[in-house]
Amino acid sequence: MSSDDDYFDEKLADFFDELDELDNLPLLDAIATITDRYSDFKYLDEGGIKIIHSCRDLKTGREVAMASLKKSAKDQQKELFLKEARLTAALQHPNIIPLHDLGLKDQQPWFTMKLVSGSSLEQVLKNLKEGKSQQFSELNERLDAFMKICDALAYAHSRGVLHLDIKPDNIQISDYGDVLLCDWGLAKVMASVCDEELLECYTFNPKGDDLTIDGLVKGTPGYMAPEQTRLIKEKKGVHTDIFSLGCVLYKILTLEKPFKGADLITVMNNTVKGHYRKPTEINSLIPSSLEAVCLKALSPNPEERYASVTDLQKEILDYRQGFATDAENASLLKLMRLWYKRHRTLSIASLIIVFISLFTSWFAFNNLKLEKLNALQKAEKSELEASKLKLENEYHRKFNKGAAPRFLERAQLAFNTHHFDDAINFCNSAVELDPTLQDAWTLKGTLHLIYEEFNSAIIAFKKAHERKRLLELAQKFAQIKNDDKSELNTEQFTLLFKRIQQMNNNHLTGSLIHHKAYSQISLEKRVELSKEIILAQNNKAIKRHTSPYSFNFHFDPKSHSLDLSNNPWMQSCLILQNFPAHTADLSNTGIKNFICFRNQPLRSLNVSRTKIIELQTLENKDLRELNISHTSISNLTKLKSLSIRVLNISHSAVRDSIILRDLKDLEILTIHPGQLNAQDIKQLNKKVKIIISKN
Fold first, then answer.
1. Which positions fall inside the Protein kinase domain (predicted)?
2. Do 10 and 132 fall into the same domain?
């Protein structure tokens, strides 16, 4: 080839190299100029406050799922949504839905995750039951999926995370066999086990956020554990997720959920009492080994369930490999039969030997065979025990004694903000890491006292080597109520309150009242308790009161109307928090703020002729009518966040009409003569009706 040809080929190659470089520039420029990363939104599904869309990620070119909150979501729900996203992102496992991105748009949080093309396990099992599909028709296929979910949950537990909403609807099965555990919205971080970086996902949940289904419970009826129903007093833990796994296993075996009922309360009662049909009563072909595993996981008593997910997995693995499960407590005959199936050739040879030496060594050989069988089973279990020990050793190496004070600090913060469940968890972590930390034992004992768990309080106070008066108090009430799971009656609780009140421990009395106010107690007991505690809390004020003493307390359960008016001696009534009142009249009383009305579903409130001077503690979002006449309140800025329709400010310190102009929902305004001038009144919304009060 001539030199001219070589030169031409070289230039031609350079030309195409330049074209390749030019071809890359459009993609580089396109990515650099992307402002709205996600497009082509398509609705997929939604829940109470969350909505899911599919969309295209313009930077990666892939289809993803985006979860976002509805516009009605409150700030606290936004915070919990973001914590769910951060927690999900921290759980890196093949069977946990992966999170891709997280952000805010117009103060509305969102996150993107893998878009799973397929169906939920619930839909798959429904289609199988109705004969619409043969997917997962084989029990072994369904058990494969179950084992993958167990893998995901065992990993989450090792990171210190509880799922607390395990159900077939939250298990996605892709078209290509992927199994993913989704929706960690109800997840809870276990402070004593979690990595330190996961503590940022530990939420101090307000009591109201724990009630998500018709204002009752957090979880899914039919799959939740008894301790999630709030019908019993039991803490949630690893055993809670194991119960839900048992429900999923039941559905896999029978294609039906275990706990049913005509209404929600019936379902929850059946859950607590363990009322359900055994799997073999629905399908007699279900292996008894698997039924035994399922029944153990579904035990109403947490202590009788499997101690860990890996223990449950091991039982399923034993069944699939031909071994007897611990749950079924197999007979000698069944053990031998299973051994024979696993070792058919060896069994035949053994039988020949047995027949040959039947009259000389039958008993010895039989014992030897049983010992060998036990040895085989123990050897297979040793690997699981070793891995469990390794995990525990890693935990103790990771958290040393020096971390205990940090847990105590978080416990104190939770206690001070009345998040007692969180406080007790952090206390437990602190004393586990450093059993000599006396302040942690003291706080732990105080929390048990608040929970009316007096035996546990005694143990903690003795470990603290101080707080003699609290120890004596716990010992006295342990004699009155020796069962830590039961509750004091109204008379006994009032006595406890008075005894603590005599110690002048205001923080403890306030915490005791707060916990009781937010407990799940009957309306009758709440009314009875409120009367007694209000009298006890205002005992000194009653004695100082010069006029004849009387106590007005009336609640109409039909209209939800609460009347405590004309009790001028009443300065404190914190026990009224969480009271189910729609209308409240506390006029002519000595209350100084709105704290006693927290978490009440109030629509109408009368606090006229009280000592309240500000509105900052008013947090009742549903309030529509408010009477603050004859008070020293002057600043109405707080009302801008409410939808007040009827407002009485007569004979109050209010003189400025600027805020009144911004109350768009205001319909009726009561003022006293000369409180607002004609120009101020003219600038109000024309629909507002003005009433002039001279009294």
1. 38-317
2. no
